[in-house]
Backbone:
């Protein structure tokens, strides 16, 4: 069902510093920051030859990553994103297997402008999983 790893998301307390670290120290191709108010985050994507790193910082008071930063002030890995061909079929298969889909259980538009869903970390070895339809 899952395809390739699309990205690894890292929550950071200072998006500009994190982007500079990846760009200036690691020599990576780093995007401009993109605010995503519907998700409560600002994102920067680091493009790698085989995948991406998504740097996330809170946007607004109700950001879902604000609590993560309270628990991990230095930041840290937040989720893994896997590609799927059909997000609704993947959702239905996962739900039938007992996996919990977070939120309304309906896809929303993610940072790449494609449908995404999130799966409960307790069902996947303590890791938040994002599925993105490609």
Residues:
């Amino acid at each position: 069902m899952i395809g390739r790893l699309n990205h690894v998301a890292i929550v950071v307390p200072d998006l500009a510093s994190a982007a500079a670290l990846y760009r200036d120290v690691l020599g990576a191709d780093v995007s401009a920051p993109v605010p995503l108010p519907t998700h409560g985050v600002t994102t920067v994507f680091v493009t790698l030859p085989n995948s991406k790193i998504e740097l996330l910082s809170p946007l607004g008071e109700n950001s879902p990553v604000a609590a993560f930063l309270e628990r991990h002030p230095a930041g840290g890995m937040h989720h893994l994103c896997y590609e799927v061909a059909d997000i609704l079929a993947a959702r239905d298969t996962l739900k039938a297997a007992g996996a919990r889909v977070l939120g309304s259980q309906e896809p929303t538009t993610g940072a790449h402008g494609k449908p995404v869903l999130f799966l409960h970390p307790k069902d996947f070895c303590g890791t938040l999983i994002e599925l993105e339809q490609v």
Q: What stands out?
A: The chain has a mean pLDDT of 96. Strands lie at 5-11, 29-30, 34-36, 41-47, 52-58, 76-84, 108-109, 115-119, 128-133.
